[in-house]
């Protein structure tokens, strides 16, 4: 039972994580758990479990659900304390909720790509914390669907911040990878970090900087990274094809490297 007075429900006072499971194994688990710890500290909640405790609940969920490919969702909220009270008690007793979800991570989206729209980034200023304040993103997905697209590239001060629930990347004409540098303007994606780690020795060069919507439209390739969709090619934005409108060779190379690193025997 979760009380309707739970601070997660009333104030979105909650941290969450989504970890990919492939071949029954957790992908980049330590990265997700250290980001959870950072978010919890940022929103004044104690971490209810240690590293070993979290690993065990995740492993148990995988086992109980026979999960081979999918996601584990985890949420830690501020808990419930009688009536609605903005500040809440001195010390919080968090509510913890997890579930396992079967999902094809290397499937149609990875193969065919997604369409995006540009949208004003209306979120609060601490996007580096992974909280359940997701109304902007929920509305962004609805706007994308209405426009016949799948996701949004969000824009602030003339620069793309990130995608609705993923980090945004482009490949310019010189073949350079460009993705926004880490700051409180974007979430520090665990998949983003995983891709960065694979670049050494790949022959690909990276520039960490923000880019404009015009640069995205002029890019030869674009893609997003997230635990839920891994590396998803972006084939069009606002109805305009990116490159030739098909997933490009750099995206494919990164997909192969990423899948290999997590032990998958698949070529996208
Ligand atoms: N940016 C936002 C706003 C997100 O919601 C997400 C994932 O949900 C990401 C980036 C990608 O993060 P990760 O690779 O850790 O899933």
UniProtKB/TrEMBL annotation:
Gene3D superfamilies associated with the record: 3.30.470.10, D-amino Acid Aminotransferase, subunit A, domain 2
GO terms classed as biological process: amino acid biosynthetic process; branched-chain amino acid biosynthetic process
EC category name: transferase
One Pfam family per UniProt: Aminotran_4
Record organism: Hyphomonas chukchiensis
A GO CC term assigned to this protein in UniProt: cytosol
Family per record: Belongs to the class-IV pyridoxal-phosphate-dependent aminotransferase family.
Leader peptide range in chain numbering: none
Protein name: Probable branched-chain-amino-acid aminotransferase
GO MF: branched-chain-amino-acid transaminase activity
Co-factor requirement: pyridoxal 5'-phosphate
Pathway the protein contributes to: Amino-acid biosynthesis; L-leucine biosynthesis; L-leucine from 3-methyl-2-oxobutanoate: step 4/4; Amino-acid biosynthesis; L-valine biosynthesis; L-valine from pyruvate: step 4/4; Amino-acid biosynthesis; L-isoleucine biosynthesis; L-isoleucine from 2-oxobutanoate: step 4/4
Entry EC no(s): 2.6.1.42
Domain of life: Bacteria
Described purpose of this protein according to its UniProt entry: Acts on leucine, isoleucine and valine.
Reactions this protein catalyses: L-leucine + 2-oxoglutarate = 4-methyl-2-oxopentanoate + L-glutamate; L-isoleucine + 2-oxoglutarate = (S)-3-methyl-2-oxopentanoate + L-glutamate; L-valine + 2-oxoglutarate = 3-methyl-2-oxobutanoate + L-glutamate
InterPro entries for this protein: Aminotrans_IV (IPR001544), Aminotransferase-like (IPR036038), BCAT-like_C (IPR043132), BCAT-like_N (IPR043131), Class-IV_PLP-Dep_Aminotrnsfr (IPR050571)
Keywords assigned by UniProt, alphabetized: Amino-acid biosynthesis, Branched-chain amino acid biosynthesis, Pyridoxal phosphate
């Amino acid at each position: 039972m979760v009380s309707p007075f739970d601070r997660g429900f009333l104030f979105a006072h909650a941290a969450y994580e989504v970890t990919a499971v492939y071949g029954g194994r957790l992908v980049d688990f330590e990265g997700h758990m250290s980001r959870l710890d950072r978010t919890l500290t940022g929103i004044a909640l104690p971490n209810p479990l240690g590293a070993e405790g979290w690993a065990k609940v995740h492993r148990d969920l995988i086992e109980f659900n026979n999960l081979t490919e999918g996601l584990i969702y985890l949420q830690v909220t501020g808990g419930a304390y009688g009536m609605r009270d903005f500040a809440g008690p001195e010390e919080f007793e968090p509510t913890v909720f997890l579930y396992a979800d079967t999902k094809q991570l290397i499937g149609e989206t990875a193969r065919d790509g997604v369409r995006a729209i540009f949208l004003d980034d209306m979120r609060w200023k601490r996007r580096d914390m992974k909280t359940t304040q997701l109304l902007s993103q929920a509305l962004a997905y609805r706007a994308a669907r209405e426009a016949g697209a799948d996701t949004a590239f969000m824009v602030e001060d003339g620069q793309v911040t990130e995608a609705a629930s993923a980090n945004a990347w482009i490949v310019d004409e010189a073949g350079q990878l460009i993705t926004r540098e880490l700051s409180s303007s974007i979430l520090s994606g665990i998949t983003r970090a995983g891709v960065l780690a694979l670049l050494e020795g790949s022959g690909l060069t990276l520039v960490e900087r923000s880019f404009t919507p015009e640069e995205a439209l002029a890019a030869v390739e674009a893609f997003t990274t997230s635990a839920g969709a891994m590396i998803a090619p972006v084939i069009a934005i606002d109805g305009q094809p990116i490159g030739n409108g098909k997933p490009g060779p750099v995206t494919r190379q990164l997909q192969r490297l990423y899948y290999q690193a997590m032990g998958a025997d698949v070529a996208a």
